[in-house]
Amino acid sequence: MKKETIILEIRAAEGGEDSKLLVKDLLNIYIKSSKINNLEFKILEDREGFASIWIEGIKAKNIFKNESGCHRWVRIPPTEKRGRTQTSTITVALINPNNNLNFNFNKSEILKQYICSSGKGGQNVNRRSTCVQLTHIPTGIQVKCQDEREQKKNEEIAYKRLEEKLRLIEEGKFSQKVYEIRFNQIGNSERSDKRRTYRVKDDIVVDHITEKKCSFKDFQKGKIELLS
After folding, report:
1. I need a labelling partner for 149 at 20 to 30 A (CA). Which of 6, 44, 137, 190 fits?
2. 15 burial level (CB within 10 Å; 0-12, 13-18, 19+)
3. What average pLDDT does range 100-115 have in this prediction?
4. What's the rounded Cα separation, in Å, for the pair 214 and 216?
5. Contacts of residue 82, Cβ cutoff 8 Å, sequence gap at least 6
6. pTM for the complete prediction?
């Protein structure tokens, strides 16, 4: 069977310091789950309030398919000295690592024109068509270059400038797409916007989408498939 690759992003949401601690707790659970399911993994980032883990192997997507969303934890935080129960939330987003920016600078979609330069530069610049104007036909984006005295050099510069403009536009679209994917999975990160509830004292975990329950102690061992 073909190996599958995913990236899980875990973020602190509501709950202050305890929410940040829970990010590490859930990261450790995902590491345990990867090990017992013979999956390869690599921690990409692990800092206060955020962690991301790369996971690869047979059925990796299926094993972690129910993890995206808002995770609500009801527990006594390790830092709580008076033994008070606190409700905190963290969010999990499942990212497809193959969902990369696909930018192709196609020169066949560009209209190239040579025009007379204007301004300083002497008779050679003003009389000859040394200024290069490029127009990207699909978007109408246009650049001009008359920086150099030679037409060829201006053309090279103009192409670089147009390519950079188009790349920035595509990067903006890609960033928005990734943001929408994350937002659709985690919502507003509010306590009421939950995927799962962990009631640690009662030793129970409830998945509100699959409607499955399991022991928190079992889940803590990495047996996340009990909620599938």
Report:
1. 137
2. buried
3. 82
4. 6
5. none
6. 0.66
